[in-house]
Specification:
single chain, 435 residues, mainly beta, Porin, 18-stranded antiparallel beta barrel, two-stranded antiparallel ribbon, 21 strands, 5% helix
Length: 435
């Protein structure tokens, strides 16, 4: 955590504990210990790069403490997040670039790694301010939780629900810690190799009616890009246990600062119009989700403009190998590919089933297929790719092992723009309430 946010958090903590630790602060506090056992296997089926396989197994511990707020008009509280990973099996030949486990000085997997995040918080009426460690879940920034430990950010975020049916959010992010690292870095964009020191954002969700929600968000990554997001969600209730959901999303991303001026290091890699490394992208998608009992059918389409690939906050190009790994607010952000290359057009379909409908609560399964084409290349041709993902999850509902969750993820990707890959993830998780 940066020194500035550490001081603020400790100051808020002192205010909380210095005579104002009223009943609500203590009574409303919650603490849980999350246990996550994760096996990850990614097999590259072609290409000359080595190694051809990433294979690792680790145990994660997540201690999450959230205090209540002190009494009074201005409520104050403190949250703490302790993360630790322990390597169970890996090897220099099967450990690639800190995808899940950080690398040691000899590029082999470390035995264990950890980090601590502190967050001070203030509440006034229906408005909350958080300063310190954040894990945003917003259209313009989604904290990644696709490996053993989650990606975290350092900054400030304010969320307000003062107006009926309207939630407003804004803030600034200044540092990130990757899912495969214990070290903070600055910020960057997809394909960027230089650090930025500020990511500002603001937006809101307006519930126009019970079934219709409109979204707008604005984000600015200093010296890289500005981004606007427009979203529209509508749910049509057809009958009991039967509905049709429409999900429309549009991102407009333009170059800013040094990226727009072509400054070396701030240009992004990958295809860009004119080979100038400048961010210039429009991405839209439309999805229909039909639900009937335990069944859910999804059909959708996504289009990425040809000026550059879709871009959001991404530290994967920075020297810290563990800084990589992002999540995107896109249906096409899957196990292996994201289908966000310049010019790419993607059709996708998914089927999911909740077995609670036939008397097996806790068991869920889904399969999705995506096919993308028209990927722009520097040679003037186009490329295509496809991916098929399968997921199976079960949570024990009763007995001594109640709450233990099992998950399997299997993905297969064939791409003319990258290496063909097969991937498997096996996850066992359990959460223990402490307070």
């Amino acid at each position: 955590m940066s020194s500035k946010y550490t001081v603020i958090t400790l100051a808020l903590g002192a205010m909380t504990l210095g005579g104002q630790a009223h009943a609500d602060f203590l009574r409303d506090s919650k603490a849980t210990l999350g246990l996550k056992n994760f096996y990850f296997n990614n097999d590259n089926r072609d290409g000359t790069a080595t190694p051809s396989k990433t294979e690792e197994w680790a145990q994660g511990f997540l201690l999450d403490f959230k205090s209540g707020y002190t009494d009074g008009t201005i409520g104050v509280g403190v949250d703490a997040l302790g993360l630790m990973g322990v390597t169970l099996d890996s090897g220099k030949g099967r450990h690639v670039g800190s995808s899940m486990i950080p690398s040691g000085s000899d590029d082999s997997a470390v035995d264990e790694w950890s980090r601590l995040g502190l967050t001070g918080k203030v509440r006034v009426s229906k408005t909350e301010l958080h300063l310190g460690t954040l894990m945003p879940k917003l259209p313009i920034l989604v904290s990644n939780d696709g490996r053993l430990l989650p990606q975290t950010f350092e900054g400030g975020q304010i969320t307000s629900s003062e107006f009926k049916d309207l939630t407003l959010t804004g803030g600034r992010i200044e540092h990130a810690t990757g899912r495969g690292s214990s070290d903070q870095t600055g910020l960057s964009a997809t394909g960027g190799t230089r650090e930025s020191n500020a990511f500002d954002f603001a937006g809101g969700d307006w519930k126009i009616s019970r079934d219709l929600t409109a979204q707008y968000y604005y984000a600015h990554l200093d010296d890289y890009y500005t981004q606007q997001f427009f979203g529209l969600l509508h749910t049509l209730t057809i009958a009991d246990n039967q509905s049709l959901k429409t999900d429309l999303r549009y991102f407009r991303t333009d170059s800013s600062g040094k990226n727009g001026s072509g400054t070396s290091g701030y240009r992004i890699s990958g295809y860009t119009d004119g080979n100038d490394g400048e961010i210039d992208n429009r991405t839209w998608s439309a999805a229909l989700i039909y639900s009937l009992g335990g069944h859910a059918f999804t059909a959708g389409y996504q289009s990425v403009s040809s000026g550059s690939g879709f871009t959001q906050l991404n530290q994967g190009g920075l020297p810290d190998k563990g800084a990589g790994g992002v999540s995107l607010y896109l249906y096409t952000d899957r196990l292996i590919q994201t289908f966000t290359r310049a010019g790419e057009r993607t059709a996708f379909g998914q089927y999911a089933y909740d077995f609670a409908a036939v008397g097996l609560p806790g068991l869920k399964a889904s399969v999705i297929y995506l096919s993308g084409d028209n990927i722009k290349t520097t040679t003037g041709g186009t490329q295509k790719e496809w991916e098929r993902d399968f997921s199976l999850d079960y949570t024990i509902q009763s007995g001594a092992l109640k709450g233990v969750g099992f998950g399997w993820r299997n993905g297969k990707s064939n791409s003319e723009a990258s290496r063909n890959q097969d991937q498997n993830r096996l996850i066992v998780s359990y959460s223990i309430p402490l307070l």
